[in-house]
Amino acid sequence: MRQPHFFKSYSRLGVPFFPIRQNKLNLGVEDSPDFVITKEFLGEFENPGINEYRFPKPEDVLKEDYYQVLADHLEKFKDLIQTSLKEGETQVVIGGENSVTFSSLLAVLERVKDSSKVGYIQFDSHGEMNSFEGSESKNFHGMYMRPFFEKFDKAEIAELMPFQLGTDQVITIGDLVLDGDEPEFYKKNNIRNINREDYINNKLQIQSELKTFIEKFEHIHINFDVDVFHHSISPATGIAGDGKWMFGEVIDLVEVINKHPSISLDMCEINPHIEGAYKTIEVAHEVLREFLQFDKV
User: Quick one: average pLDDT of 267-284?
Assistant: First the structure.
């Protein structure tokens, strides 16, 4: 079993506006760490580390200060991870909305020091790779990955980036609904995405591909958005679910990834205040258990 260090990141800061194709704010998602990392769940692990970080709510931030405040808190959260994580522990960030992945991945790259040694795997039904200008919603939670691949078009965020990844260092898994300038970015950079139909038709080939991918890197960082699942599996997502994957199909791929001895993980976009929260949290627990039971045989 891996030795987890949980970071509870209470954040809705990356979603100040209506998410795309929705007519209401993502209220409540910031509370999810307390519903996921419960006393009972922590009791399943021996002496797990745990820290908390509270982001301000977007309505409490002046519009003209927003990107500086966002950048300051993303950096502070990254620093908390760095100063708290002990040798031998597995970094596990629990959001909140998905832009906390920015801090989580940045902390990993800072520790590893050589970004070419890190592979990134994203389970999601959205790309999260818009530029600011290309974004339709202007919510940072749909842009947080773009700064890892090229100079971002908001200086406050770009200044936080001493490291970048090659687009061949990422695999996304999900039936992606791309928007803004994401389709062009994916196509131009030939970013590999595995959708459910592809997996069902080519299971062994894709499992082999994923195994080959993780073996190229010293460390693997996984971003897990629960909306990768079909709505019947994970109904209480922060953003209305577009996912199609069934639980066992995802776990098949988790088992492949989990052969790697060095991983970090963040899990985001659970809304504990909407219908289906209990079911979604149970699914989240099962995914976390799978990742934290390490067996590389």
Answer: 96
